[in-house]
Specification:
Blueprint: E1 2-4, H1 7-15, H2 22-33, E2 37-39, H3 42-55
Parallel strand pairs: 1-2
């Protein structure tokens, strides 16, 4: 099964925000640990990068990296 992430979920996951629902975080970790697929649409990446530039977010974490 492929799970699609939206912009807020992606950013909250990367920065470790408490805004991210615990069950969603656990699901993302579970999918990643089991070799599942997480789909990040191109527009979500574009929005995340725009937000990063606008507010200076650090989107580098131990989980993975958005350049």
């Amino acid at each position: 099964m492929i799970h699609t992430l939206d912009t807020h979920i992606l950013i909250w996951y990367f920065i470790g925000s408490r805004r991210l629902n615990r069950k969603i975080k656990e699901k993302i970790n579970d999918v990643r640990n089991k070799g599942g697929r997480l789909l990040v649409p191109t527009i979500v990446l574009a929005e995340a990068l725009a937000i990063k530039k606008k507010v200076g977010l650090n989107l580098i974490s131990r989980r993975c990296t958005i350049l």
